[in-house]
Design brief:
By secondary structure, the protein is an alpha/beta fold. The protein contains 6 helices and 6 strands. The N terminus is likely disordered.
């Protein structure tokens, strides 16, 4: 997406946090070490955010009064690529203890909360995933519409 699109989003902070160096590896290769770089060569994938991005995200989390998090930072299912997700989840838990309202937006992010045993350490964990985001957008959810009509 273009920076113009990102800066106009209602769901992003005034200064969007864009990833800096990423943790790169051959596609889902667990046997080789990852490395950090700004732009991945065409034969590798960015599978986690790097240390500088993690710090940017943690800073944004600690400044927030409300957080809706939908989507992990990396391929958290693999230990080599879970650092960003784990560190940001820790920051979200800390923000929650500091009276920030924290909502885990379902899907893979709810799975992260379960994996890191933080489901009861945030304000709410939704199982809705994309439906949660559609609700926040103000869209009518088909299931809610059907129940409302009944």
């Amino acid at each position: 997406p273009s920076l113009d699109l990102l800066s106009s989003s209602l769901f992003l902070p005034p200064s969007p946090c864009l990833p800096l160096p990423a943790s790169l590896s051959f596609p889902f290769c667990l046997c080789l070490p990852s490395r950090c770089a700004f732009l991945p060569p065409s034969f590798v994938q960015g599978l986690d955010c790097g240390p500088a991005s993690i710090e940017l995200f943690k800073t944004a989390v600690m400044r927030a009064k409300t957080i809706v998090w939908n989507g992990p930072m990396g391929v958290f299912e693999f230990p080599n690529f879970e650092q960003g997700t784990r560190d940001v989840m820790s920051a979200v838990v800390e923000a929650t203890t500091n009276k920030c309202t924290t909502i885990i937006g379902g899907g893979d992010t709810a799975t992260c909360a379960k994996k890191y045993n933080t489901e009861d350490k945030v304000s709410h964990v939704s199982t809705g995933g994309g439906a949660s985001l559609e609700l926040l957008e103000g869209k009518t959810l088909p299931g809610v519409a059907a129940l409302s009509a009944a």
